[in-house]
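Exercise 7 asks you to align residues with tokens for two separate proteins.
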Amino acid sequence: MCGIAGFISPNYNQEHLRRLTSAIKHRGPDAEGFYFEPSDQIGLGHLRLSIIDLSAAANQPFYSQDGRYIMIYNGEVYNYKEVAAKYGIQPRTSSDSEIILEAFAQKGMDCVQDFNGMFAIAIWDNREKRLFIIRDRFGVKPVVYYHKGRDFAFASELKALLQLPVEKKLNMGALQDYFFLEYIPNASSILQDFYKLPNGHYLVADHQGIQVKPWYQFRDKIAARPLAARSEAAVLDEFEELLSSAVRYRQVSDVPIGAFLSGGTDSSLICALFQKQNQNPVNTFTIGFDVEGYDESGYAARVAEILKTNHTETHLSDKSSMSIVDRVTDYYDEPFAAPSTIPSYLVCKEARKMVTVAMSGDGGDELFMGYGYYDLYKKIKRIYRLDPGIGRALVKSLFKMRGPRYERASRLFGLPGKDLFAHLWSEQQYMFSEKEIGGLLNLKETHLSIRDNWRQIDAMKLDDFEKISLFDIEQYLANNLLYKMDSASMANSLEVRNPYLDYRLMEYSFNLPVEFKLRGGTAKYLMKKLLERYLPHDLVYRRKWGFPAPIGNWLTRDLSYMIDTWLDPKRIRQQGIFNEQQVQYYVKAFRSGKHFHDKRVWSLIFFQQWYDKYLEKTPV
């Protein structure tokens, strides 16, 4: 796992290359390397976190045997030995980097279809004077880039690109998306002229410009019909075999490895298979909070005891958890309002004390319909069949009468039906409605990119639940969960691997009939049936927990100063981005006891912190 950065530009030099890599030193503390050719106006920089082949021979940039290609690379290709055999590669090292580059030298972009792993790869073709940048299928490893005029630059993180002499202008469209979703989706960035390379895409850059093209589309792997009918026992065996293979691949490492264990279905299943494949106890990690309703460390401890893992539990007081709140924008360099950023960072910090690689359960909920809004969507969709003028208005009034939580949900019944799920998703994240965003940003019209994404999916010939699952995979997983974990882990120089994101498992699981995922009110049905082979019934079927921080509790007490500091009316007025009255409305409502506004208040605070750190110091 590493950090990569580079450019093609007549305006950047070696000093700029050093600035790019210095900003992401945390991603690769073990070695650094550079390629700079002023005649081609090309620069490449690499920071290495050594995982496979720890020798200096595997340092990057890596040069192909014929001398034509130069590569920098972030990630792991787990099946590199099989790729080497298929392509007849005689390696000089035991590194997967060499295999990737030599396969590309033989087949170009076609070779990427054979890679099973997570990766962001940049390869300079020194003969054709073209740069290829390739991102993995599901977006585990990030690539951000800047393109304006004759300047093109890329890096693993946005904060690196901001070290260049570039204009920093707020992207108001992305800001609307942020306040609706809690993250910024798709290829857009919070700044104009900055972009994310979408997952499953590659970019070709030269002095004439850039082109971005897909090389893998998950939608193309969705079968016209689900997999042929077979017995539950057969499906269970097939699923276990695929997941076991994915876990086994992700143990390829020359450094210590462990796994996160929350005690929930996803992580428990990964840890069960991980331990089954090893004679000695594997390292597992969890953290807990001293706040009722946010601590599931007891469940994780029980699972670890049954599986006989070497378990490390870190119990965090409010004080120790809140110690990083003022620094969270150091690690997340785009506005990102998920409170789980805090425990994600902290569990990575604890894990790094013992291991350099950790497995995570990301992807299980998205594949196996693990979120509560699946059934909720079906119920609310029925209500939408009522007369919009009378029926929905009545339901809306009844919801408002039932207390704060239902008052928040009542917003859904005044919205157009065609975008129902997009608005439901936002409401479930406690974010702003489209109307509220217009008022907050003083906009007469709003455009949320997520609506277009949902409408495309909604037009597909899929079951409603499959549509939501696909939306979660393409949007929430790719743009939220994976960004969060990459930022948290690499801030601690920790590599995180995701067995559920093995493309073989993803394609197989999505094409299973819905009843293997959601049956009789039981979400993640197949996963739970497999977990029954390893854990007792009460642990398998316990209530689902998330992984948030109790940010609402903190904002009413110890972190109240953040509201006063970052949402101060004078600051808001001088900044000129937000409607001052609207901001104060949410602050007052939250402080008067309507605590369902906590996420909205936090999202405003996070943006203000980010703006102050990365754009300008706002005088107060």
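Second protein for Exercise 7:
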Amino acid sequence: MQKMSYKTVLEQLPRVETEWIRPLDPGSYRLTSFIFLRFLGLIYTLAFLSLANQLSPLLGSDGLLPVPLFLEKTLRYFGDSATAWARLPTLFWFDASDKTMMALCHIGLLLSVLLLLGISHVLQLAALWVIYLSFNQVGQIFYGYGWEILLLESGFLAIFLAPLRQRRAPSPAALMWLYRWVLFRVIFGAGLIKIRGDACWLDLTCMCYHYQTQPIPNPLSWYLHHLPTLFHKLSVFSTHMIELLVPFLIFSPRRLRHLAGLILIGFQILLILSGNLSWFNWLTIALCIPCFDDHALERILPNRLSNFIQRIPLAEMSHTRRVGVYGLCILVFYLSSAPIQNMVSPQQAMNRSYDPLHLVNTYGAFGHIGKQRREIILKGTNDHPADPNAHWHEYQFKAKPGDGDRMPVLVSPYHYRLDWQIWFAAMSDYKSNPWLVHFMYKLMQGNEGALSLIEHDPFDGKAPAYIQADLYDYEFTAADDKTGAWWKRQRLSTWLGPLSLEDPALREFIGHYSWDR
């Protein structure tokens, strides 16, 4: 039997594409790819914008969780740089100075805006992914959210959609199927974690609590909370139907797949209206776009946009790109084993990566719904805390509830990382949240970075002598409340404090984490 040369083998690949990929889905995806990349550019822009505004006070050398210190401890833990690089791949192993981190952040923001404006290139998408991966790896607790790894997974696949030259890159159907596989894991994983995680999802009562106890409610949350119980139960039932049944339609023939895409987009819009969940729902909407082919999108998009896309010369799919797409499919197939095992496991985990590059992950949302809302309120005073007449002044944050008369904010898809983490901190003690003790320490120093993370400083930049964290119970006011307040609250206990800079226990605590350098 005559051996085939490497070139001959590559020349046979178009036949494989015709026989395997195209019969699955014969539609054109030039317009689909264009719209998806613009939407991805929007998400990247939001991600880098929020990072640029919070980088220094959160992760800078004088931040709450300094990256240089984190990398130093990581290297010491792994013992050698090669292992550290392999387990935690990030550009900041080269240099983790504040200037370098801010420069990379601004480069990422610039590349994101260009993508949003319609300028895309393979190297640009690769750079965006590498930069955001680098920040994600060192972001520690402030990057422990499902939408971070979802953006990385989506961004990595997008590298194979972008053109290498001025002509538009072909949009193989295989990539659209890979994005549908991501969308399936996001939606179906969320459905599975609910029926396994909290009994209120099974008795259909979770939505009686969710609008009030979610991390950052918005103004509509108050009104939704006061809807009849029957409405809440129907909402939970509809959520189960959408998250457990509709995902399978993603892989069905085009008309049913288009229907699934429309249902999921509508579902995400409702979630956006109900609360501030960062850009998670926005990115999920972007993942719904590959459910539609060009013919479907041409019906709803302006003719000028469609004609503009069609006028851009389309490059032939090169052998290199074709091999890359096939290799990507094989890689995703291989790495999907762990997420699939997790989804079918009774001990399903939520939002977890199984490889250091976060290429194929498992997802889930709100497996547990809090029945009561606990909030940590920070207070400062210049009086002696033992004095019963001491005047305590509260710090107001940008997004989380504080003053009961203050209307809940509307910030999505922007992400205030500190406000989210304080919501989690109220569920445990200070030993599980040392970063919050560090934040209190910096407030007593009048640290400008720490003060930039809050909405209102009651001391106008002058550090208080003492600071204390109290735990409060929060509830929405009743529907017939006439006071105009949005929240009613009751103090439960002291979460931590009172503390002062001269407190030996506080200094020992800060020194233990090497934050006193």
